[in-house]
Amino acid sequence: MNRDMSYQGVMSRKNEIMKKAVGIDYERFESKGIAFDYERMMRETGYSLQEIQRIQSETGVGNTPIYELKNLTALARKLAPKGKGARIFIKDEACNPSGSFKARRAATSIYHAKRKGYKGVIAATSGNYGAAVASQAAMKGLKCIIVQECYDSRGIGQPEIIEKARKCEAYGAEVVQLTVGPELFYTFLKLLEETGYFNASLYTPFGIAGVETLGYELAMQFRELVGRDPDVVVATNAGGGNLTGTARGLIKAGAYDVKIVGASVNLKGLHMASDTQFNRKSFTTGHTGFGIPFATWPDRSDVPRSAARPLRYMDRYVTVNQGEVFYITEALAQLEGLERGPAGNTSLAAAFALAQELDEDQIIVAQETEYTGAGKHIQPQLTFAKENGVDIIIGNPDEEVPGKNIILPSHPSQIKARDLDLDKIKKSYIKNCIETTKIDYLTKEDIDFLVEDTKSNEEFVKQILDELGVKY
Amino acid sequence: MNKAKKGDWVRIYNVVLKPEERAPQVPDDTKKVPLEMWVKGFLLNEEAKIGDEVEIETYIGRKIKGKLVEINPYYNHDYGKCIPELMFIGRQLRGILEDGEDNE
Q1: Searching chain B, which residue's CA lies closest to the CA of residue A146?
Q2: Which residue did the predictor score with more confidence, A45 or A109?
């Protein structure tokens, strides 16, 4: 058996390897054109919400508490115009067994892998998902390999990623640590081929359906606690699964009127695959380096069709700056007595700013928190930033330049949620659909799909097709 | 300790792709350097010293070869150094909540 193990050789076997490692025949849901039957894929390859609740409860995942952040709300009201300042709540996902909402995603994937008779699971992740997969695999008695992008070419790694490696190893997983580069995917494929393990991808229907319980619980908890659904839910957006799953869960609970806001940390100007820029960012997830490319092209993920499709559900997309998230992380600890990891507080920083636009009787929820600890805390992260030449300044966050400085707001009134042009992102997604499929004529089915996948309308889609000079 | 014996917990190193073998889409600075890998496991060789080519068995039982770089590897990440820039935040927030500063 002399397989070609070169980069090109392994990449050319991608589809064959993936089919074995995921066990989903994506072609069943695809049309000849752009359209694919997303809902049927979710229904036929995933599990029902009730099944997932049962699966997750077996390993203690879910049913995380909700806190009303009364002091942060009071602070927002001090800063807002009279009558403004919504009640701010947080869903404490750090209470999951592995310390983040990612346990929900991992629980369903690992359950499925076990049921299908796989001996082990592999996931490519530097973040909370690795810890979640390792934790769930330990509970189910499966072997686990986590592949991490960890170091730059000087062998220097961010404390947050090193901490995640520690956590994975604590659960008995093997951690393969790599330097920077998209060829992580190549190593990942080689491992899948060699071991025959299950690809616990973040982007399968199992992973996304696993987050639906978060949205569902959220609606149910609010109905019990305050007698109604929240007005706005803010989800940190990276690969899109968190937002997609939460929104789908809210819909399944019948909470149709909740506005879904995506929030990412602004890392504009930093190239994600750059060896020299790798350690000049202080957020390894929840940032625009994932948020924008995955929103404008979800199917760039490690499975043929991503089940994370945030544009289907997003009503608004905002960014916050690194310094603002660190500030709000400190505020959460100091005012609310909750010490949580910074990345998970991205949505809270946005919610704090957005609350000031809403009326006092409205409710806004930051839908996650994550665990904190050595390495994964504002102090080691800011220490690391300083050691890598990033200036820490107290000043005006509007002047922050990612990779150059981190600006802690000198006053909480400077924390802002800056709107991204969602129509522009939708347009870019449609353009990518056309460029990738090389289709020059769109059917009614294609247009209907694009309308759904961008939460827009026929007029909007047709206007963009006209601009692009594509016939329909 | 720079000598390991069979069964010791060690860390190995490998070059996965040389600079010239890297993916075409990689940015220029990344293309100048190899794709490197580190894995931990139990040493399978009878004896080895730092720098030797060795074989290990990972915690889940996979066998891999590579250069021995560390014996009994440990985590040295911590809570970082003092960040004086953070020290004002809690007091500032409590001050605002206690003293007013209403925006009317």
Answers
A1: B39
A2: A109
